[in-house]
Amino acid sequence: MPTEPQTLRCDVLVAGGGPAGVPCALAAARNGARVILCQDRPVLGGNASSEVRMHIVGANGTGKFDRGEELVTEAREGGIIEEIRLENTVKNPQRSASVFDLILYDLCRSEPNLDLMLNTSVVRAETEDSKITAAIAVRQSTEDRFRIEAASFVDCTGDGRLGAEAGAAFMEGREAVGTFGEKLAQPEADNQRLGSTILLQARKHDREMPFEAPSWAREFSREELRLRLYATPGEEEPTHEYGYWWAEWGGTLDTIKDNEIIRDELLAVTLGIWNHIKNGPAADDFQAQNWALDWIGFLPGKRESRRFIGQHILTEQDVLTSQPFPDAIAYGGWSLDLHPPEGIDAPDIEPCVQTPVPKLYDIPLRCCIARDVSNLLFAGRNISASHVAFSTTRVMATCATVGQGVGTAAAIAAKREILPAELPESASALADIQRSLLRDDAYLIGRNVMAENDAVPHAEITASSEQENGSAVLVCSSQSRSIHGQSGAPGDRCEAGLHRWISDPEEGFPASISLQWPNNITITEINLVFDTGMHRHLTLSHHDGYTSKMIWGQPQPETVSDYSIEVREKEEWETLVEVTDNYQRQRRHHLSAPKAVRGLRIIVRATNGIDHARIMSLQVNALEFG
Ligand SMILES: Cc1cc2nc3c(=O)[nH]c(=O)nc-3n(C[C@H](O)[C@H](O)[C@H](O)COP(=O)(O)OP(=O)(O)OC[C@H]3O[C@@H](n4cnc5c(N)ncnc54)[C@H](O)[C@@H]3O)c2cc1C
Alpha carbon of 296 to those of 23, 42, 119, 243: distances in Å? Predict the structure, then answer.
């Protein structure tokens, strides 16, 4: 390999293309930064990729409990992760793990400001005056070495490799009760963590499929697996299509340094469980005679390794009391979900203990900025959180919202030519970040930073018809979702209501909403947000039972599919935009040239299922209000 590295330059380097890194890189690029995304594997997605195959969950599922009531608690994440989920459900009805890889690859490859470097590992950082000057990356497949200079460096590697190389402070293991005053913490601190898991997929055939376990597979008794889901026949409907998240091991070791040992033992564990199902004493009850292994992971899904120390450390109390943070860039809602580090070797302990988080909670930007390296940010499972708080922030849709928040913040730091570490002190930078996130359909609890150049609040708004509580003016209401239900946002930081225009089904289609301004204005962009049923689960899962809770393989029925946007300067209406077959929640229509208008209307001709039109939010950017 040549010793002289090639020098590359960008505004934001994102290391790691997992559930946090992909939205982070996309958000930074879409907010105007030149971005390089280095991903050490040939595919994107981290634990959600075809190499691991975990399903993405977030604030609307809380493990054993649900947080999604129609038109009351729409807790599913918006923004880039919603775009990915909707793309996946429509383009991947067959639930192929590889098609999901392709969807992420396509999104990154199609982003003009983003250079995706696959098979490229970040291995070193150069620093000066507590600042990273360059990251060194290696691509073994082409024997290339790169020196990447950037204004901001974002560590989305899960393990925190980039930050560790830069000397950033981090935590590992479990803190004691006294460390942060957390009730769910350990009596004594230790160096143990959540373990890793290898998943499998099996397929049913039309004849018996024998399985012979390798000599090194572990043996399990019925007694040892009695607390594990699906491991006791008769307790649940026998289901074998998707593996066992509780086949967990390695949490008592170093999940980075011992990763190879952990992989070998996890293969022995996972195949041992499969052997128990196929050939064990209760094999007949499992009804798995015709089932055969289709896929087994070779890359351990890693839950926990380093957690950086940022400008703030998120704790159990922050989460359970929904502590408001002025620098919120994301939110969470999954339960505090702790597992015994011994995993499968602790047969008498439940594989997870989930403490529900009563309300959605803020994740501040300061948890994503290094305390001691001024241009280092992080997103994903390595953010600055105690072990207990990490147990909720670690789920992938939450990692994705943090990724989008951090990518947006990094781009705004680059635009303003300030260090990421300075962002939380700048009220105007924070307002800029939060405004950009809300414009891009992220949800921030209680935040209503209206776009400064939005002409909608200045218009007279009418509709062809409307339902009670669904009047046309709600397209510019304070929220673009209902979130007031008992497990939604804290009551003092949300408003009850439907927060969308809803047309009357009796009036049928087309249904239209019209805006009229007293004088001509010059518009540049129209930003629409449609309803995508955010109270429901929506994620690629290889588990049939979980998938049956969703509307998978098609657009969501609430979503407007066919619409046009018309404008007029005087009397004549002119069609600006005509869309058919839409399934996305957010559609931004940027005009090729500014346009003088006095009236604008959205004409909805069809939805993907329901008998009336719904628009959550409408922004019309105009030069007059800039
Ligand atoms: C078995 C298991 C079950 C889980 N269950 C769920 C669940 O049901 N739902 C859920 O939402 N979450 C679940 N989680 C948690 C979730 O998967 C992780 O917390 C989440 O994937 C973290 O996202 P991330 O982007 O921070 O890290 P990762 O997913 O680990 O992604 C990091 C990425 O960075 C890349 N990378 C690493 N080092 C480098 C480097 N030096 N240079 C370049 N690239 C690098 C990796 O290849 C990877 O793609 C589970 C985790 C495991 C292991």
Answer: 27, 18, 21, 9
